[in-house]
Amino acid sequence: MLGLHLQASCIISCFFSIVISILWIYTEPIFIWLHQDPRISKTAAIYLGNLIPGLFAYGFLQNILRFLQAQGIVMHLVWFSILPIGTHFGIVYGLMNWTSIGLKGASMAASISLWMLCISLAAMHCAVSRIDAKFNISTSLIAMCVNTETIAFMFTCGLGAAASTRVANELGGGNPQKAKNAMVMTLKLSTILTLAIGLTLAFGHNVWAAFFTDSSLILHQFASIIPLLIISITFDSFQGILSGKTTCGKGCGWQHLAVWVNLVTYYFIGIPIACLLGFVLQLYDKGLWIA
Protein backbone atom coordinates (compact mmCIF):
# COMPACT_ATOMS: atom_id res chain seq x y z
CA MET A 1 0.00 0.00 0.00
CA LEU A 2 2.85 2.39 0.75
CA GLY A 3 4.16 1.85 -2.76
CA LEU A 4 0.75 2.68 -4.23
CA HIS A 5 0.56 5.84 -2.14
CA LEU A 6 4.03 6.82 -3.37
CA GLN A 7 3.01 6.35 -7.00
CA ALA A 8 -0.21 8.32 -6.51
CA SER A 9 1.59 11.17 -4.74
CA CYS A 10 4.18 11.36 -7.54
CA ILE A 11 1.41 11.61 -10.14
CA ILE A 12 -0.31 14.38 -8.16
CA SER A 13 3.00 16.22 -7.72
CA CYS A 14 3.64 15.99 -11.45
CA PHE A 15 0.22 17.48 -12.20
CA PHE A 16 0.72 20.44 -9.88
CA SER A 17 4.27 20.91 -11.16
CA ILE A 18 2.81 21.37 -14.64
CA VAL A 19 0.39 23.99 -13.29
CA ILE A 20 3.17 25.85 -11.48
CA SER A 21 5.41 25.62 -14.56
CA ILE A 22 2.77 27.43 -16.62
CA LEU A 23 2.76 30.24 -14.06
CA TRP A 24 6.56 30.39 -14.11
CA ILE A 25 6.60 30.64 -17.90
CA TYR A 26 4.49 33.79 -17.65
CA THR A 27 6.42 35.21 -14.69
CA GLU A 28 7.45 38.41 -16.47
CA PRO A 29 3.96 39.59 -17.51
CA ILE A 30 2.53 38.54 -14.14
CA PHE A 31 5.15 40.55 -12.23
CA ILE A 32 4.68 43.56 -14.48
CA TRP A 33 0.92 43.31 -13.93
CA LEU A 34 1.68 43.39 -10.19
CA HIS A 35 3.63 46.65 -10.78
CA GLN A 36 7.09 45.19 -10.24
CA ASP A 37 10.22 46.62 -11.81
CA PRO A 38 10.48 45.45 -15.48
CA ARG A 39 14.16 44.52 -15.12
CA ILE A 40 13.53 42.48 -11.98
CA SER A 41 10.54 40.83 -13.68
CA LYS A 42 12.64 39.82 -16.68
CA THR A 43 15.47 38.49 -14.51
CA ALA A 44 13.04 36.49 -12.36
CA ALA A 45 11.45 35.03 -15.49
CA ILE A 46 14.86 33.90 -16.78
CA TYR A 47 15.76 32.30 -13.46
CA LEU A 48 12.44 30.50 -12.99
CA GLY A 49 12.35 29.36 -16.60
CA ASN A 50 15.56 27.40 -16.14
CA LEU A 51 14.38 26.10 -12.78
CA ILE A 52 11.30 24.36 -14.23
CA PRO A 53 13.06 20.98 -14.76
CA GLY A 54 14.14 21.07 -11.12
CA LEU A 55 10.56 21.71 -10.03
CA PHE A 56 9.47 18.27 -11.23
CA ALA A 57 12.49 16.65 -9.56
CA TYR A 58 11.71 18.48 -6.32
CA GLY A 59 8.13 17.18 -6.35
CA PHE A 60 9.26 13.58 -6.82
CA LEU A 61 12.05 14.05 -4.29
CA GLN A 62 9.75 15.19 -1.47
CA ASN A 63 7.52 12.15 -1.96
CA ILE A 64 10.46 9.74 -1.95
CA LEU A 65 11.93 11.42 1.13
CA ARG A 66 8.70 11.04 3.10
CA PHE A 67 8.39 7.44 1.91
CA LEU A 68 11.87 6.55 3.18
CA GLN A 69 11.65 8.59 6.39
CA ALA A 70 8.44 6.79 7.31
CA GLN A 71 10.44 3.56 7.30
CA GLY A 72 13.10 4.97 9.62
CA ILE A 73 15.68 5.18 6.83
CA VAL A 74 17.70 8.24 7.82
CA MET A 75 21.43 7.61 7.52
CA HIS A 76 21.01 6.29 3.99
CA LEU A 77 19.38 9.61 3.06
CA VAL A 78 22.36 11.48 4.48
CA TRP A 79 24.93 9.45 2.55
CA PHE A 80 22.99 9.52 -0.70
CA SER A 81 22.60 13.31 -0.38
CA ILE A 82 26.30 14.03 0.05
CA LEU A 83 27.22 13.42 -3.61
CA PRO A 84 24.54 15.68 -5.18
CA ILE A 85 25.20 18.43 -2.64
CA GLY A 86 28.94 18.21 -3.17
CA THR A 87 28.65 18.31 -6.94
CA HIS A 88 26.12 21.17 -6.77
CA PHE A 89 28.78 23.62 -5.61
CA GLY A 90 31.08 22.63 -8.45
CA ILE A 91 28.31 22.80 -11.07
CA VAL A 92 26.99 26.20 -9.98
CA TYR A 93 30.50 27.65 -9.74
CA GLY A 94 31.48 26.31 -13.14
CA LEU A 95 28.31 27.44 -14.93
CA MET A 96 28.36 30.93 -13.42
CA ASN A 97 32.09 31.64 -13.68
CA TRP A 98 33.41 29.52 -16.55
CA THR A 99 30.56 30.13 -18.97
CA SER A 100 28.72 33.18 -20.24
CA ILE A 101 25.22 32.11 -19.14
CA GLY A 102 25.50 33.93 -15.79
CA LEU A 103 22.33 33.82 -13.70
CA LYS A 104 20.92 30.97 -15.77
CA GLY A 105 23.73 28.81 -14.44
CA ALA A 106 22.44 29.02 -10.86
CA SER A 107 18.96 27.73 -11.72
CA MET A 108 20.33 25.15 -14.16
CA ALA A 109 22.71 23.85 -11.47
CA ALA A 110 19.83 23.58 -9.00
CA SER A 111 17.79 21.60 -11.54
CA ILE A 112 20.70 19.25 -12.29
CA SER A 113 21.44 18.66 -8.60
CA LEU A 114 17.78 18.02 -7.77
CA TRP A 115 17.52 15.40 -10.51
CA MET A 116 20.75 13.75 -9.34
CA LEU A 117 19.42 13.54 -5.79
CA CYS A 118 16.02 12.32 -6.98
CA ILE A 119 17.54 9.56 -9.11
CA SER A 120 19.91 8.42 -6.34
CA LEU A 121 17.11 8.21 -3.76
CA ALA A 122 14.82 6.45 -6.23
CA ALA A 123 17.54 3.87 -6.82
CA MET A 124 17.94 3.41 -3.06
CA HIS A 125 14.15 3.01 -2.71
CA CYS A 126 14.21 0.20 -5.27
CA ALA A 127 16.99 -1.53 -3.35
CA VAL A 128 15.27 -1.13 0.01
CA SER A 129 11.89 -2.30 -1.28
CA ARG A 130 13.47 -5.52 -2.49
CA ILE A 131 15.16 -6.16 0.85
CA ASP A 132 12.23 -5.16 3.09
CA ALA A 133 9.16 -6.32 1.25
CA LYS A 134 6.97 -6.28 4.35
CA PHE A 135 6.56 -3.14 6.42
CA ASN A 136 5.84 -3.46 10.13
CA ILE A 137 3.19 -1.71 12.16
CA SER A 138 5.59 0.92 13.48
CA THR A 139 6.35 2.05 9.94
CA SER A 140 2.67 2.55 9.20
CA LEU A 141 2.07 4.41 12.47
CA ILE A 142 5.00 6.77 11.95
CA ALA A 143 3.84 7.48 8.39
CA MET A 144 0.32 8.28 9.63
CA CYS A 145 1.65 10.53 12.41
CA VAL A 146 4.02 12.38 10.07
CA ASN A 147 1.26 13.07 7.57
CA THR A 148 -1.15 14.16 10.31
CA GLU A 149 1.30 16.57 11.91
CA THR A 150 2.39 17.93 8.52
CA ILE A 151 -1.21 18.78 7.65
CA ALA A 152 -1.71 20.41 11.06
CA PHE A 153 1.52 22.38 10.69
CA MET A 154 0.36 23.89 7.40
CA PHE A 155 -2.11 26.08 9.31
CA THR A 156 0.60 27.29 11.67
CA CYS A 157 3.01 27.84 8.80
CA GLY A 158 0.52 30.15 7.09
CA LEU A 159 0.00 32.15 10.27
CA GLY A 160 3.75 32.32 10.85
CA ALA A 161 4.41 33.65 7.36
CA ALA A 162 1.78 36.37 7.77
CA ALA A 163 3.04 37.27 11.24
CA SER A 164 6.65 37.41 10.06
CA THR A 165 5.79 40.00 7.40
CA ARG A 166 3.63 42.04 9.79
CA VAL A 167 6.24 42.04 12.56
CA ALA A 168 9.01 43.04 10.14
CA ASN A 169 6.90 45.89 8.72
CA GLU A 170 5.95 47.22 12.15
CA LEU A 171 9.52 47.06 13.45
CA GLY A 172 10.74 48.76 10.30
CA GLY A 173 8.14 51.48 10.84
CA GLY A 174 9.27 52.02 14.43
CA ASN A 175 6.20 50.45 16.04
CA PRO A 176 7.49 47.73 18.42
CA GLN A 177 4.22 47.61 20.38
CA LYS A 178 2.23 46.83 17.22
CA ALA A 179 4.76 44.14 16.35
CA LYS A 180 4.28 42.63 19.81
CA ASN A 181 0.50 42.76 19.44
CA ALA A 182 0.75 41.00 16.06
CA MET A 183 2.81 38.20 17.59
CA VAL A 184 0.42 37.81 20.54
CA MET A 185 -2.60 37.68 18.25
CA THR A 186 -0.89 35.09 16.04
CA LEU A 187 -0.16 32.91 19.08
CA LYS A 188 -3.81 33.16 20.15
CA LEU A 189 -5.02 32.13 16.69
CA SER A 190 -2.52 29.27 16.65
CA THR A 191 -3.78 28.13 20.07
CA ILE A 192 -7.39 28.09 18.85
CA LEU A 193 -6.46 26.11 15.73
CA THR A 194 -4.38 23.67 17.74
CA LEU A 195 -7.23 23.17 20.21
CA ALA A 196 -9.63 22.44 17.35
CA ILE A 197 -7.23 19.96 15.75
CA GLY A 198 -6.52 18.28 19.09
CA LEU A 199 -10.21 17.81 19.88
CA THR A 200 -10.84 16.48 16.38
CA LEU A 201 -8.08 13.89 16.76
CA ALA A 202 -9.12 12.99 20.31
CA PHE A 203 -12.73 12.25 19.43
CA GLY A 204 -12.44 11.37 15.74
CA HIS A 205 -9.11 9.56 15.45
CA ASN A 206 -10.76 6.36 14.20
CA VAL A 207 -12.43 8.25 11.36
CA TRP A 208 -9.19 10.03 10.49
CA ALA A 209 -7.09 6.86 10.64
CA ALA A 210 -9.58 5.09 8.37
CA PHE A 211 -8.38 7.35 5.54
CA PHE A 212 -4.97 5.65 5.82
CA THR A 213 -5.75 2.03 6.62
CA ASP A 214 -8.52 -0.48 7.27
CA SER A 215 -6.41 -2.69 9.56
CA SER A 216 -8.03 -2.99 13.00
CA LEU A 217 -4.63 -3.60 14.60
CA ILE A 218 -3.13 -0.41 13.17
CA LEU A 219 -6.27 1.55 14.10
CA HIS A 220 -5.92 0.34 17.69
CA GLN A 221 -2.22 1.22 17.83
CA PHE A 222 -2.90 4.65 16.30
CA ALA A 223 -5.44 5.35 19.05
CA SER A 224 -2.77 4.61 21.69
CA ILE A 225 -0.34 7.10 20.15
CA ILE A 226 -2.92 9.90 19.79
CA PRO A 227 -2.01 11.60 23.14
CA LEU A 228 1.62 11.88 22.05
CA LEU A 229 0.57 13.16 18.64
CA ILE A 230 -1.64 15.87 20.15
CA ILE A 231 1.18 16.98 22.47
CA SER A 232 3.67 17.22 19.59
CA ILE A 233 1.18 19.14 17.42
CA THR A 234 0.59 21.57 20.31
CA PHE A 235 4.28 22.31 20.85
CA ASP A 236 4.94 22.37 17.11
CA SER A 237 2.31 25.07 16.65
CA PHE A 238 4.16 27.43 19.02
CA GLN A 239 7.52 26.45 17.56
CA GLY A 240 6.21 27.20 14.09
CA ILE A 241 5.23 30.71 15.15
CA LEU A 242 8.35 31.55 17.16
CA SER A 243 11.35 29.78 15.62
CA GLY A 244 10.42 28.16 12.30
CA LYS A 245 11.32 29.17 8.74
CA THR A 246 8.53 31.77 8.33
CA THR A 247 7.99 33.14 11.82
CA CYS A 248 7.91 36.12 14.14
CA GLY A 249 11.56 35.42 14.97
CA LYS A 250 12.46 35.84 11.32
CA GLY A 251 10.47 39.07 11.18
CA CYS A 252 12.55 40.37 14.11
CA GLY A 253 15.79 39.50 12.32
CA TRP A 254 16.62 36.66 14.72
CA GLN A 255 17.34 34.08 12.03
CA HIS A 256 20.67 33.14 13.63
CA LEU A 257 18.95 32.39 16.94
CA ALA A 258 16.25 30.30 15.25
CA VAL A 259 18.92 28.32 13.39
CA TRP A 260 20.73 27.43 16.61
CA VAL A 261 17.49 26.54 18.40
CA ASN A 262 16.42 24.18 15.62
CA LEU A 263 19.92 22.74 15.19
CA VAL A 264 20.43 21.94 18.88
CA THR A 265 16.93 20.63 19.58
CA TYR A 266 16.81 18.39 16.50
CA TYR A 267 20.33 17.03 16.04
CA PHE A 268 21.75 17.18 19.58
CA ILE A 269 18.60 16.42 21.59
CA GLY A 270 15.92 14.87 19.36
CA ILE A 271 17.95 12.29 17.43
CA PRO A 272 19.87 10.87 20.47
CA ILE A 273 16.62 10.57 22.45
CA ALA A 274 14.97 8.89 19.44
CA CYS A 275 17.78 6.33 19.25
CA LEU A 276 17.61 5.69 22.99
CA LEU A 277 13.84 5.35 23.33
CA GLY A 278 13.09 3.86 19.93
CA PHE A 279 15.84 1.26 19.64
CA VAL A 280 17.68 0.82 22.95
CA LEU A 281 14.56 0.80 25.15
CA GLN A 282 12.57 -0.73 22.26
CA LEU A 283 9.61 1.64 22.45
CA TYR A 284 9.71 1.78 18.64
CA ASP A 285 7.05 4.12 17.20
CA LYS A 286 6.16 5.66 20.58
CA GLY A 287 9.82 6.21 21.39
CA LEU A 288 10.46 7.92 18.08
CA TRP A 289 7.42 10.16 18.49
CA ILE A 290 8.29 11.08 22.09
CA ALA A 291 11.68 12.23 20.83
TrEMBL record:
Query: What are the protein's UniProt keywords?
Result: Membrane, Transmembrane, Transmembrane helix
GO MF: antiporter activity; xenobiotic transmembrane transporter activity
Protein name, entry field: MATE efflux family protein
Q: Pfam families, from UniProt?
A: MatE
User: What organism is the protein native to?
Assistant: Hibiscus syriacus
What InterPro entries does this protein's entry cite? MATE_fam
Segments spanning the bilayer are: 6-26, 46-65, 77-96, 108-131, 151-168, 189-211, 217-238, 259-284
Q: Which family does it belong to?
A: Belongs to the multi antimicrobial extrusion (MATE) (TC 2.A.66.1) family.
What GO CC terms are in its UniProt record? membrane
